[in-house]
Amino acid sequence: MRPSAAEGGRAWRSFATPFLCLAVLLTGAPAPAGAVEFENSKFRRDAAYGSSMVRAWEKGRSSAKASAFFLANKNRRLLVMTARHVVGRSPVFQYRGRRATSARQLLRDRDVAIYEVSFGGAVRYDAVGKFHIARGRPRLGQNLQVVGYPKGFSGALMVSRNCQLMPKNRMLHPTFFGCVDLDRWCDYARKANKSRTTCERDAKSVRRGRGRQCARPVAERKTRHERHAHSNYTMNCAVRLGSSGGPVILASSRRSRAVIGMPSAVFARVYGPFPANLGVGVATFSQGFKARAQRFGIVVR
Length: 301
Fold this sequence. Notes:
20% of the residues lie in helices and 27% in strands. It is an alpha+beta fold and 301 residues long. Strand 3 (66-71) and strand 4 (79-83) form a beta hairpin.
């Protein structure tokens, strides 16, 4: 007897669930909330940063809005920092419904870029909130927060807390399982009576003397996604598409707003018994970039 359409649908969902979030990254659709939250980090609404944040996108891609933020500077100019991959060659910035009339790039370091913007005099330096660049080098294990406009929250400003900075080699390619993760999935699938097709294929490959087709850390791969090269750290943080370009700030600096970098690659959290550290690349600021920023009067402390 052939299975009904409903039964077939349930079987497919059982098989596809752990791979859903990885596929989302390739399609560009927003991921389910549970797929991009980690055990230690969740999205929270927080209006405290509303005056400091700017929406950013590339001209012609108005549906792909992401994040940017104002920078404190001694020359009292409207300076905005964001990720270069967000705005491309034709940046568009919007603050509280007003679109910038001009945007001139001042500095760039890999994926990090700073622009001087003008809103035709409608937005002034004193009227906006501002972040500054942290002087010290980031340390592994530091507690961080991320501010941005992640997709799936109807454009709301969200803050992700309880994030930790980790080595870049803990970040895996988003479209493959690591071998350890695959073994955990197989054990989970066996106990939960879920589809084990991937596990069976891997076992057959090993029995035939072939190498396992699992992901290696990004740092060990010969070819990388273009944004991986910008990431020199990773973090276990609730971040998704749209958070790119927002500030990664020290958790202890809520008042001082010290920025160490920004999200540069978002890798979805998958369902099942997987570790919570596969997820978000971080592009931090080089010492050379900080020195150049200070020449433009940008506050580094």
